[in-house]
Amino acid sequence: MEIIPHRNQSPSRSKRKQELYKLLVARSDITASLNSCKQMLKKVDGLGHELYHPLYTAIVICYTRPFTKNKPYGALPKKWYTFDDNELNEIHEDLMRTRHELIAHSDMTVKEAFIVPAGCEIGKDGDKPLVSDYIGVQISMQYFPRPMFERIHNLCVFQGSRINDEIDLLVEELYEGMELPARPFKIRIDDGL
Question: If 116 and its partner were Cys, which of 55, 112, 136, 159 is the partner (CB 3.0–4.6 Å)?
């Protein structure tokens, strides 16, 4: 649950450090999704490519992780998943739905199972139909076409940019002008350094 301060009362230092922590982790996850999108667009030529499914999964999981329950601080606040641009809202919602129904869970209404009788067409090899020689099974999945990965890439760039801006503000607010150790130090979620 997010605590909203009263008017004229700023959040405590520990709350601002908690926000900084959540944004740093979110930036890391969104960067991982962005990098996976880059690899998808660079190396994968279609659904049958051996890297399609692992990259598809990584893109969805990494992007959506900051917007789901996380211990101990929870999801990012709503301002991070609402956009003035309807296309960005749609892409975000598509990614969240895909995570919930296909990637993190196997929702039976989306991931359907079929029996494939011998003699059924199961696909194409160019113009030539592929026909099953024997009775088999099949699972349906929903996948994103290539242009969707370009759109996700753009969403990640946008999210990363606005998260970077907020991180810069929080770091300046929390640590600028302080005497700091001459080495990296762990962010503690308290009112101290």
Answer: 136
CB 13 within 8 A of CB 191: yes
DSSP 58-119: HHHHHHHGGGS--TTT-SPPGGGG--SSHHHHHHHHHHHHHIIIIISS--TTTS-EEEE-TT
Contact 153, 146 (CB under 8 A): no
- Nearest CA to 19 out of 106, 64, 80, 93 is that of 80
Tell me if 152 sits within 8 A of 33, measured CB to CB: yes
The pTM for the full model equals 0.83
* Token pair belonging to 180: 């700091």
